[in-house]
Replication initiation protein
Amino acid sequence: MSDTATMAGLDPATFSDVLRVAGAPGFDRLQEQLRRTGGCSDPIHLHGATVTRDKATGHVLHSYSTDTEPGGRLRIACGNRRASRCPACAWTYAGDTYHLIRAGLVGDPDKGTPHTIREHPRVFATLTAPSFGPVHNRPGTRPCRCGTHHPEEAPELGTPLDPETYDYAGAVLWNNHASDLWRYFTIYLRREIAKRVGLTQKAAREQSRLAFGKVAEYQKRGAVHFHAVIRFDGADGPDSPPPYWASVALLDEAIHAAAARVQVDLPAAGEHPARVLGWGTQIDVRPIKAFGDGAEITEQAVASYVAKYATKAAETTGTVDRRVGNREALVLLGVPDHPRRLIEACMDLHDAYPGRKLRDWAHMLGFRGHFSTKSRRYSTTLGALRQVRADYRAAQQRAALGLPDPDDQQETTTLTLAHWTYAGHGHTPGESWLAANIHRDIQQSRDLAREEIAANDTDTEGW
């Protein structure tokens, strides 16, 4: 068996389980379940049943029970956004994020934004952390401070030149307060805009609105930075044109000024000194123009970039994607030196700043905010996008079963009773291999379909 398993690219234990799964009763139904989850890596298992009855007569129109399913379980997608945990669900999350961001750039009436927003001033801004000590980098054509020209994937990139003098405490405390810095930035940004156009803050709000869509990304050094789409709207939001004084140049000036004003005062705690946390000096603001015409960065590129990093977290720096209980676990998990020191700094600082929950977020190098956020009127919501997908699948199921569509009835004539209980999660090794192949096939099929659509329509942009 080992020779056959090697030919299949599987270890003998996985290959043996693949044969067991393929020969078990209900294999076709198992494949159907895994396909409906998109090839989820860690599906949720449910026990339960549903009964749909005619409300007037009590007649059973449809019934379903997991007793008839393989293993007596129904598998549903885990919905985890992390690509390190579940590539299939993260791919779906990234697609939703793409459409959310894109709707706020090109307009989509079904997602709450008119096509006229393409005429609104908008920029793609990047706000970074300050320096906590010199690190190995690739400064253009010049060598690193260490005298070496590092290749792009060199493992030392982002690590300190001198770990003993690097401000690890400052780095994790900054990450821990990054969401507060962003909140203050949005407040000061509105104030800076009002000041520059000679209006009171109230008058500026009565004439314009700002909309945001942002994502957090980890630099190789382990510091969080934010990429944000910032858009000028009129007084009534995306449906109204911005005032005459709203411009990309105004946004650029105000963003730099607001970022320079932001600070979070952190009092001394025990042996740890007081600190003033603020944004770094490297702030990048780039205009986004309609159709990418003459712009350094296009609408497509912005939406794709935000979607890509919405599914990634601190594990891109070499840390782990789950909570760490103690220092010994870092050794067992093989965490590299730099992220290990950052995690240990979180543990060391936890008691000094108990309200910041640094130990709980040590695996995130102190960061405790949401990775993808938006202002209320930027565009649609991820929940709304998920609901559209669920409604579509429910309509398909009703049509297949011949059940009436509730939207076509003046009064609901059916009653559905359901009972579900949690029954576990995950896959056996053979099921995991099968799910991974299903996810790959689904993704390849969709990518080919989108390439064909794009080839026939030069203005089509899709995730």
Q: What stands out?
A: Residues 429-456 form the longest helix (28 residues).
